[in-house]
Amino acid sequence: MSKGIVLASSSVHRRELLKNAGIDFTAESSDLDERAIEAPLLESGVGPEDVAAILAEAKATDVSERHPNEIVIGADQTLSLGDEVLHKPANMEEARRTLLKLSGRTHQLNSAVVLVEGGKVTWRHVATATITLRALDPGFVGRYLAQAGRKATTSVGAYQIEKEGIQLMERIEGDYFTIIGLPLLPLLKELRERGEIDG
Predict the structure, then answer these.
(1) Which residues form the active site (predicted)?
(2) Annotated active-site residue in 50, 76, 83, 198
(3) Model's pTM, two decimal places?
């Protein structure tokens, strides 16, 4: 008999990906302070891929305490520009600065997904997508943000490739789901192999 599945995320995009894939799940976000967990990791030199995995594990483990008999999916994403790790912009001005910083440059989106059962991590996967933004005119950035609105502050790169953000791109290497923030194909494969979803 399959266990229940809980997505430990408040992300509308991750919920939509699972829903569109036909997965029966509930969603509950963690109350952990992600920046407080992340800061010492970055200071000690932990790479952005591992930071994403550790944050995904922390969130899923936290939610698993309230759902010990279910499979909890945790996910997190970091954006790395060279040695710098960027975060979701707090406001539209930060979104503007983020886009100008990424303009004409190549960055990585590191998306981690984990499964936690009874408080223990039973599976993890990290996928990386490489994205190059075209050289952006500051005036265009302003017009783009006016069109995108507050959605720009819900994404670590201040863009959504599924919407207007695709106009910012010059080159993408990696799959759509990794960019959205949930490596869906490896996750579905793992759930199928466990007999949790039909396969």
Answers:
(1) 76
(2) 76
(3) 0.91
